[in-house]
C-alpha cells in the first residue's frame, strides 16, 4: 500500500505534529473493509488499538480502506469536545483533494498536520509529556 519511503514520510508527519501537543495520532491502512461503513470501521480499529486509553482522551485515528476507496477520521471524546463542529469535515475535504489525485501520502500528511494544529491549540505539549501511543502505521 505504501513504500518504505512513503511510510517514513507519514510517520515523520505524525512525529512532527505530536512534537507540539500531548495529543496522539495514528494511521491504520487496510486493503479492504467488509460491508461496513468507514466511520464504523474506524471506531472499531480505534478501540482495537486501545487509542481511548490516552490520559486526556485526545487521540485521532486516520483510517483508510484502499480497495474500497473509503476513509474516515475518528477523534476521541477529549478532542471532539473542543474542536469546531465542522473540523473533521473540513479535514476530510482537504484530504479528499489529494486522494482524488492519487496522492495518499499527501492526503495523510495534510490531515495529520491539520489534526496536529488543533491538538496543539487545545492540548499543548507539556514538559512531562510521554508518547502514549506508537507512531507507526498499523495495517489490517
From TrEMBL:
What domain of life is recorded for the organism? Bacteria
A Pfam family that this protein carries is: TPM_phosphatase
Q: Indicate the segments forming the TPM domain, all copies.
A: 1-116
Entries under InterPro entries matching the protein: TPM_dom
Looking up PANTHER family in the UniProt record yields: BLL7265 PROTEIN, UPF0603 PROTEIN YGCG
Protein name as catalogued: TLP18.3, Psb32 and MOLO-1 founding protein of phosphatase
